[in-house]
Amino acid sequence: MTAAVGAAAGAATPGGPPPVPVEAVAGRRRRRLTPYLLLLPGGLWLLLFFVVPSVQLAGTSLYDRSGSLETGYSQTFAFVNYLDAIGAYWPHLLRSAGYAGIATVICLVLGYPLAYAIAHKAGRWRTLLLVCVIAPFFTTFLVRTLAWKSILSDNGPVVGVLRAVPFVPDDFRLLATPAAVVCGLVYNFLPFMVLPLYASLERLDGRLLEAAGDLYAKPVTTFRWVTLPLSMPGVVAGTLLTFIPAAGDYINAELLGTPNQYMVGNVIDSAFLVRLDYPQAAALSFLLMATILVMVLSYVRAAGTEEVV
Amino acid sequence: MAEDLVLTGVTKRFGTMTAVDELSLTVPQGSFFALLGASGCGKTTTLRMVAGLEEPSVGTIRLGDQDITALRPYRRPVNTVFQSYALFPHLDIGENIAFGLRRRGRRDVAAKVAEMLELVQLPGYEKRRPAQLSGGQQQRVALARALVNEPRVLLLDEPLGALDLKLRRQMQIELKRIQTEVGTTFLHVTHDQEEAMWMADTVAVMNEGRIEQQGAPTDIYEFPVNPFVSNFLGQSNLFAAEVAGRSGADLELTAHGARFAAPAARARSTEGRVWLGVRPEKVRLTAPGEPAPAGHNQVRGVLTDTCYAGVSTEYLLRTPWDQEMSVFSANQSAGEPLAPGTEVVAYWYPAHSFVLDRPAGSGDEVAQYAADPLGVAP
Ligand SMILES: Nc1ncnc2c1ncn2[C@@H]1O[C@H](COP(=O)(O)OP(=O)(O)O)[C@@H](O)[C@H]1O
Ligand SMILES: [Mg+2]
Fold this sequence. Notes:
The complex is a heterodimer.
Chain A: H1 2-12, H2 22-61, H3 80-120, H4 126-134, H5 141-152, H6 157-164, H7 178-202, H8 206-214, H9 219-248, H10 251-256, H11 264-273, H12 278-303
Helix pairs in contact in A: 2-12, 3-7, 3-9, 3-12, 7-9, 8-9, 9-12, 11-12
Chain B: E1 5-14, E2 17-27, E3 32-37, H1 43-51, E4 58-63, E5 66-67, E6 78-81, H2 93-103, H3 109-119, H4 135-147, E7 153-157, H5 165-182, E8 185-190, H6 193-199, E9 202-207, E10 210-215, H7 217-222, H8 227-232, E11 237-247, E12 250-255, E13 258-263, E14 273-278, E15 284-285, E16 297-308, E17 312-318, E18 324-330, E19 343-348, E20 354-357, H9 364-371
Parallel strand pairs in B: 3-8, 3-9, 6-7, 7-8
Antiparallel strand pairs in B: 1-2, 1-4, 4-5, 9-10, 11-12, 11-14, 12-13, 14-20, 15-19, 16-17, 16-19, 17-18
Helix pairs in contact in B: 2-3, 2-4, 3-4
């Protein structure tokens, strides 16, 4: 094969490499530029709407807090803003990470079997089930969360049923508890978990599962050594897409919780819009970003994404 | 023998469609057994039932004295080399091969894996990924991954189907060598009749979910059981004939007004309507205008096509009753092959004939069909 190709090339240009035509050089240059051209629109967008505002926000977070909107702020590189923010609101930061983490785990536990069933067991119902997963998005976030407020309320059906269960106290309630906030987060972010999981499970080759069975793997073992590792990209993507927005969310805590369940988002909300303490709001935003970044990086390392193709 | 694989009356239906139809089969321990059949005749389904990936609708599968019909795949002492290889893309070659050993908690995994890679001639490939290997190499890994478990039966589903011709020949020799070396029973599924004849000690010809004939390649080739087999394994010329009588050990036949002889020992039916068959390479042609030597069966005809293929020449002859007959002639002497249009006599020893049953209702059309069961002849 190679010999034949070589002989053909040799026949075309006896002695020495073939001369490279001018158009070929131009074509090669264009090909080298292509990746950059593809990066350009997205890069510009990020620069304009992420990098520039972030730098501005970083500046704001270091303003002297004794200023105000009316009197103006002076840049004093007040790193103490960060210490003040942590000192005053560390419980909220912890709650954000904690609630979002728990909600993400629950989403994974609920979403994985759901995505697997849609991808491999649903047959002709597949499309319909996928639409059902996405359907809640047709209502706005706020209205959906308000609906959960009435579902979980003290006179609502869930609490009513639970109170009828023996050993559940009669004053048992869901609304205004951490559980309610986590429920809301799970409900609102479940599709972000299911869709990437579905995408990676759908690509899973059923013949690999049969091969595992043929090689003495019981169904559970097959899941552990074949299905799960091959769906890791979906697990990682789904987890990040759920955890990151959930950690920054404040609507669920606002509507389903009390100030005792407030997350850092609620504090930022009030610092920006109620107390007008811009430097502190900016500092908290950065602290939230840093928390998320640290958690995500350590998670991605633990999940070992480079192991996964 | 104690470890034979025995399928008894196995039927598999998918809805109303019957993929495997009351199939009975005995695969002797230690044999290289080929299941030969056209695409869609139920070979894969049969293999999957032996592997436990499909449950028979009816029938039993036994391995030695153990009934394995309802056993889960992971409990069966059989392993499969899949048609698509089905290597685990997230595991390296070493871990792919070690998969079965690890699931059963075996020791000395690394040593066994290395030994297997040696056997399939890929030493030192442990750390590569399946995607980095060529088709032929993946094929070998799939073989090693199955064989390392020392199965009592190794199932191979068209393992060489995806390889190009040259590599396929090489792997056929290789597979044969490995089977001789390890002595495991190989149940090899293929649609390639040459592959089946070359490799297997026993061939079972399958058609529409049933076994048509089973035996050593030479037995099936020399004395096929019916027109389908006579044209699935190699080619045959079949002439519609009647048994006219008997003289000694030979049957006397009439076909299209001419008389023929065939050994009674090579007849599936000794009376009434029959097919008179002869393989193309058993037939010789006279030089133009010359008579055929005495004591031979003979057919006059006009050459319609001549295909010179180097080692042999393949002639097509049109008989007076307008049937095509093919003749393979070894190019043993120098000189030009006979040109189309030449009038010749085709002749062969009566001992090379075979006789098949021709039930009422089947006529020359069947002979045409039988000459080209797959519809692939040019
Ligand atoms: N899971 C299945 N569902 C429905 N029909 C099937 C299934 N598997 C195989 N068949 C049908 O059974 C027949 C035999 O298939 P198969 O065993 O794969 O043939 P082969 O391997 O000989 O080509 C085919 O007609 C095929 O369409
Ligand atoms: Mg098949």
